[in-house]
Specification:
Elements: H1 2-11, H2 14-17, E1 31-37, E2 43-51, H3 54-59, E3 71-81, E4 84-85, E5 94-99, E6 105-112, E7 120-121, E8 126-133, H4 136-139, E9 147-149
């Protein structure tokens, strides 16, 4: 019993806890350009961090204190799948755009609540999730069916 307690204490040292997602944000990920084409003919360009590796996706926007209006984070699952997100350790509200393999926006969840553990689901298979600053979808009049242009979705159609 004492051995287990000592082992647990050793694992909970500041050095063991000092890692992205536990107490601080991850370093900025590689950035690429992404464009959303509205059905009304509008075009909105974003600089998005690419969350490609599972460890980057797990941490995501945790502990970030701000996101610029033209920034985002794109979670690429590699292939269509059901997707669920949460806001654990996320300090700012986010809009989540669930994007089908053809680049069409499948679902939009606006203003996800910081720190919430509630599951935010895609409600169908999606290739990726784009996180934007909370309120962006409303501000830009983004809608389900709008098209996202980015290399992961293939050629623009």
């Amino acid at each position: 019993m004492i051995r287990r307690a000592l082992l647990l204490l050793a694992l909970l040292t500041p050095a063991a806890l000092a890692q992205p997602g536990v107490d601080r944000p991850q370093p900025r990920l590689p950035v690429e350009t992404l464009t959303i084409l509205g059905r009304d003919g509008t075009s909105h360009a974003f600089r998005v961090e690419m969350a490609l590796r599972p460890e980057d996706q797990t941490v995501g926007m945790m502990f970030r204190t701000a996101m610029e209006p033209d920034e985002g984070m794109l979670f690429d699952w590699g292939a269509p799948r059901e997707s669920a997100m949460w806001m654990r350790n996320t300090l700012i509200p986010l809009d989540m755009l669930f994007i089908a393999a053809d680049g069409r926006i499948h679902r939009i969840h606006e203003r996800a609540v910081p720190h919430s553990l509630a599951s935010i689901e895609s409600r169908g298979p999606v290739r990726a999730v784009l996180e934007l600053a909370g309120g962006t979808a409303e501000r830009l009049n983004l809608r389900v069916g709008d098209r996202v242009q980015h290399r992961i979705f293939g050629a623009a159609r």
